[in-house]
Amino acid sequence: MRFGIFYEHQLPRPWEPDSEQRLYADALEQVEIADRVGFDYVWEVEHHFLEEYSHSAAPEVFLAAASQRTRNIRLGHGIVQVPPPVNHPARVAERVATLDLVSGGRVDFGTGEASSAAELGGFGVDRERKRAMWQDSLDAITRMFVEEPFAGWHSPYLRMPPRNVIPKTVQKPHPPLWVACSRRETIHLAARNGIGALSFAFVHPEDAGKWSRDYYRLLESEECVPAGFAVNANLAIVLPMMCHEDPAEARRRGALGAAFFAYALAHYYGPSKHTPGHNSIWGNFTKDGPKMGAQGTDPLAGALGSPQQLIDLITRYEAAGVDQMIFVLQAGPNRHDHICESLELFGKKVLPAFTEGREEREREKSSRLAPAIEAALSRRSPARRLSQPYVIDEDAELSRLTHRPPPTPADLLAATRKRARLMGRHLLSRLVATRSDEDLTRWLTPGRQRLLFTLMARSFQPDKAFGFQGTLEFRLQPRSTWTIAIRGPRARAFPGPARTPSLSLTLPAADLLRILAGTANPAALLVSGRLKITGDVTLASRVAEMFGGPSPY
Amino acid sequence: MRFGIFYEHQLPRPWEPDSEQRLYADALEQVEIADRVGFDYVWEVEHHFLEEYSHSAAPEVFLAAASQRTRNIRLGHGIVQVPPPVNHPARVAERVATLDLVSGGRVDFGTGEASSAAELGGFGVDRERKRAMWQDSLDAITRMFVEEPFAGWHSPYLRMPPRNVIPKTVQKPHPPLWVACSRRETIHLAARNGIGALSFAFVHPEDAGKWSRDYYRLLESEECVPAGFAVNANLAIVLPMMCHEDPAEARRRGALGAAFFAYALAHYYGPSKHTPGHNSIWGNFTKDGPKMGAQGTDPLAGALGSPQQLIDLITRYEAAGVDQMIFVLQAGPNRHDHICESLELFGKKVLPAFTEGREEREREKSSRLAPAIEAALSRRSPARRLSQPYVIDEDAELSRLTHRPPPTPADLLAATRKRARLMGRHLLSRLVATRSDEDLTRWLTPGRQRLLFTLMARSFQPDKAFGFQGTLEFRLQPRSTWTIAIRGPRARAFPGPARTPSLSLTLPAADLLRILAGTANPAALLVSGRLKITGDVTLASRVAEMFGGPSPY
């Protein structure tokens, strides 16, 4: 088991003129302590425009500063946003390599796509293409690390002629790769790409075993084709943490920060509207907060406690096969001195329980995985060598870059479908925006229900179901019930209850319309008690996007 | 007078596995010394793919590392490449602000466009639009610093909806702005934009007075409309430096590095062909070097000397009105221990000669300029406030971003003209590539000479002449002479010599064709003795682009 600390650089309003400077100075001091007491990693996010939630917009700068204040701690990008409209892949390769140089090879390179509307809309990243951008950029960037020269790129997302991208990393072939897993299914993606899974999905220790088994089973299977030129087999999970000898004091010091973290996350990643420079998420939180806090701390509360409680909790995660625990201490209004005390105490009383024999265990794991990793790497297409030296010709390169081929029929069809889907969503959202609950219930006549569920079934997106098979039952209040049965790539709707539903949702008819329009968040409806669920809870959060609605990820 | 040191992170081949790591570690140690002995600035370039010449691809990372090893020295981006295809303007604002936070407000923000074929072709930046991109991005970035929220952008180069770009800088309204002046005329652009001029053009002390007078005259005139929300009135020049009590030793230690610097610069910014991952610039330099070294050190040699020689030289620049001397020590094969010794000696023996009364002089300068600066700032369009709160709507933002208006007739005409110009250049370069000097001389019959000079005159680009008026005489060997007279925006060609030419070029007819085709560099022809010049030397380097040929900048 390895240990990390995690930074969003949260800054609840109101802000003082020196708030951001203090935030950064405190964080650097905390990282210095973490390094001294034996933490293995500091992870920092890259987020843009997410006021209050994350003021960490240039992690390459913060981590570079941290590199000169520390000796051993690894510097983790958790994560870099790799879609080219945000960061040109060559710029990513350059900054990762430069950080690796100034830190003497201490970089871990986490990657991701971004998923808030604030970021995607701000940089013009199409939500439906961002996963493809991630995969494409990761391939290009890892080749920039190892190819001399990088042999060039020609994809729908990046065009670049051959160049020697310098400097190169200290770690060879490149720093360990990770991917952010905002939803747990992405852990499968990580395994198939042979890279570390940074799970932000607050997995319970009881569920962690399943995810760890899935991860290693896939990573050792033939489905694993590494995204990089080395495999990083590690599963890390992120949890809020605060440590104090008195468990009640640990909770007092950490609970509000953890609850604000979850609240602000829901603000930016749910359907709430954000008004730049204008919202006060902290203000709203203190109004809504107590309720959220009480409900919200359950899965998170585990890491707010005494050293012995933390040892017990971590032991359960270790037994479940988790390789790294990453702790969020800097969250919401959590105090710098409390964070420093927690880190010191953790280093003194908790860490030593997990270090004995650790390197031996890690060596064993490496040997066990070695044959599978070797086999996986042989499946990855190798670094390219140009068949003949490439001579730079600016004019020719520019005209190749600016010339775009005409769209194919498939492109046009996809664009038309997308426009139709957006239009449907738009009409639905106008409908729900202008009518009361009563109006909407009346509007949803039996005939319209049939139309709605038939359209939902027709719009079923198998790739968003992650292999799910079974029946979904919708108990619409006041009085109608519909079922959608999913088998293979097809879904079929029929009126009435299901015999053994995989998931049953009970909710006002109006709220179903709101979920499909993307203006209501199932998680928020669940917290407020308007939505009741029997069955697989995580499935519920995917209902909208399974049927062509917007994804919160 | 203030003092800076300057980093390209040069690394001549051959490379060892740890060469880049050592290069960076040494540089950090040098910066620590510079800070301790009283240097005011460390400047770092941002260059991409320029193997051997510059391994400084992520200066935000290096400067952030330096921030934690130093106390007072200012951290200068010299420069950030601001065309959006290289760095998204929001990413630039973010990284500059973050560096300002971790350094406690020590950032100077130099800006530029990039101009090597390796970089422009690599990122797909159109040379003819990069100046416009620079101006546009600078306006957007400075607004991101001061507007809360940034009110959005809609230009041919950047589209972005309103967002609050965070974090904000420590220095208010933002760090001092500069622009790279690879050619001396850009000093006028700096003045008109109310920003510092970082002159890389190796100005002689005798010429510096004129440039300084021009700079301050324009900056204090009504032509100055600040690019930022504060004015930075400073002129800095960059020179190679090495200091030793024995002037001959200083020269021995520094001359080769300075010569390599100039040689590698000419390689990437001249018409030489670069083959990524393949060239050895150092190898070619050691073959061509001695000659270059001898000729090349003239304007540079001044800052290789004893403390007293440096004091004398700097005094001349100070008298000419230069505000900052920026020294290149890390160049070519220059040794780390020599650089450290130079910095120590400079701090001990040279710096003290310029610090007495310096703050008083700077205060006087500030008061003298204050009224003009106030007037200039009142001409800048102010920070914007949204008339009503803007609510983020990802779908609407994405469709606005991806919808592009059809090209206007003016766009189409410009594109056609550009294509014709490129085609002409292409035909010319094919001609010169396949024929010997004798063939070319024969090919250039009197009739074709008339056609060529008439076309040159017609292609005259007044904006590339920077207000030049006068006559250019071309003495083509073996025996014909042509003159082009420039008056206002027009040029006229006629056979025969000029009465009082502003510039007279004597060169083989074949070489004129090569210059116009962009395959020969006037500077290189000058060094090799094939081209002889009477008159304004800097005008000669602009001849090709004044008549529609390629610009080396």
From TrEMBL, chains A, B:
InterPro entries, A to Z: Bact_Lucif_Oxidored (IPR050766), Luciferase-like_dom (IPR011251), SCP2_sterol-bd_dom (IPR003033)
UniProt KW Ribonucleoprotein keyword: no
Domain Luciferase-like: 1-324
Keyword Oxidoreductase in record: yes
Superkingdom: Bacteria
Residues covered by the SCP2 domain: 466-547
Stored Pfam families: Bac_luciferase, SCP2
UniProt keyword list: Monooxygenase, Oxidoreductase
Protein name as annotated: LLM class flavin-dependent oxidoreductase
UniProt organism field: Nonomuraea guangzhouensis
Lineage: Bacteria, Bacillati, Actinomycetota, Actinomycetes, Streptosporangiales
